[in-house]
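User: Mind token order:
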Amino acid sequence: MDTKSQPDEVMYHPVEAVSATIKTTAATATAGTFVSAIQNTLSKHNVGAMGVFTRSGGTIAVFAAMGASYEFFKNASANLREKNDSLNPTIGGFFAGSMVGLRRGTMPAFLGYGAALAIIVGVFDYTGGAITGYQRDPDVDEVARKEFMRKNRRRPIEETIANLGEGRGIYGPGYEERRRQRIKENYGIDVPPANTPAQ
């Protein structure tokens, strides 16, 4: 890959797929154990606490498999393609969703769950990857950013007056003189200037 021919493109740094997969598998297996414990608590049986692993242990396996397949295929596709874009989470999402389909045991479920999760994860990543919305740069002062936005979108007063006309708090230079003249012509009242005291 010639970096001199494409100066605008950001250089890709490979990700260690196996270590990231192990970390994600541990996290999702822990979450699966938590969900399995809730399932075990809410079900009626006389197995005891080991029911987390014996009765609803499949939940732990599905969570662990989903996390492992998502993280591995996301990072592997990023490393193979040498790009960090929204297609990588989409690929990972397909394989993670297909783990749920494997539990159902049919090919339509395998493809359907995979495609559904691929679309959800891909769109989520493409639109910014945050539920809370667009994250502002923490290094930029908020007051300075708002002042810049006001200056950036500020229009000249002449353009504003040409579009809206004078009045309603929008007054161009020489407005008081034009107003006095207009009142004198229309009503015959001589309005004193604002700086001179009234007699």
In short: The helical segments are 17-42, 51-54, 57-81, 87-104, 107-126, 142-153, 157-164, 175-187.
